[in-house]
Amino acid sequence: MKTKILSISEKDIEIAARIIRDGGLVAFPTETVYGLGADALNAQAVGSIYEAKGRPSDNPMIVHIARASDMGRLTPRLSPDIVNLIENFWPGPLTMVVKKKDEVPDRTTGGLDTVAVRMPDSKAALNLITMSDCPIAAPSANISGRPSPTRARDVIADMDGKIEAIVEGEDCRVGIESTVVDMTSGIPTILRPGIITAENIEAALGKKVQYDPALLADDQAMKNQGGEGLKPKSPGMKYKHYAPKAQMTVIEGRRDKVKAEIKRLKGLNERLGLKVGIILFEEKAFIEAAHDFFAKLRDLDGEEVDLILAGAMSDSDGVGFAVMNRMLKSAGYNIAKV
Fold this sequence. Notes:
The N and C termini lie far apart (49 Å). The chain folds into two domains: 4-220, Alpha-Beta Complex (DHBP synthase), CATH 3.90.870.10; 247-337, Threonylcarbamoyl-AMP synthase, C-terminal domain (Rossmann fold). An eleven-stranded mixed beta sheet has the order 1-8-2-3-7-4-6-5-9-10-11, sandwiched between helices. A four-stranded parallel beta sheet has the order 13-14-12-15, sandwiched between helices. The chain is globular and about 55 Å long. Helix content is 36%, strand content 17%. Helix 1 (10-21) crosses helix 5 and helix 11 (286-302) packs parallel to helix 12 (318-330). It is α/β, with parallel strands linked by helices.
């Protein structure tokens, strides 16, 4: 398949929208990561996403809309809390899991009776959705299990020749995927952390928010379960995710000890003839880490390193917790504590 490389001009977005309307696949930029889009109400088109990504069929999609009123096409009712979150955080990197209408195909929801929905804060994405005249199902535009793409070149590396078109935009502003919050029970439950934190959501709703227990499991529990038998309610909940090509270890502990251990392990492994890459953000640079983490993994893949040593960040900060969620999954919960 010849993949068209398109710009974010209105003319090119219309070409991309026509591909979506015709049941094809288009990768496009959002503020979080690049998405791989298809008509969310076309089960056959959504099935093509799974095929292009090599994605497990029980992994639900996030459906992207351009107007809050489009929620009516996807879910039978909006609670006051859902309306509140729409007013506070849309357009933006917040996804809500809600009860789905029968019109939403099971292929889109991974067989669940719920659907995950968000309105992206990206002009190119909103224009594409509007011109396509349909909600767009769009997981990250990468081969399943690989680091999410935050730059057009990352998408081209994974998807060229597999999909009809790639819309080239700027690098993604946020850099990690949206926060996902389950709004189907009495207590809003975060299924995937992101740059919109539990504290942000609690402030908007005036009530407590909880984390899904899977997010708080210790590293040994996650290693043991390996995601097997887990029916994910949100993308990214399974254990193996975001993995670079190299083996990766997260070094966790007091900052000075982490730096010293990274230096020691780097020297040791280089003496053994291995090429070592390092990811070490400033201690409280949480927003920068969110923006850069996946890009750094991709760059180290390009450098063909054999081992990646990453310094853990504080997970007491909400954004730090979201970055650590990705970092630990990338490393397969391979942690060295110092």
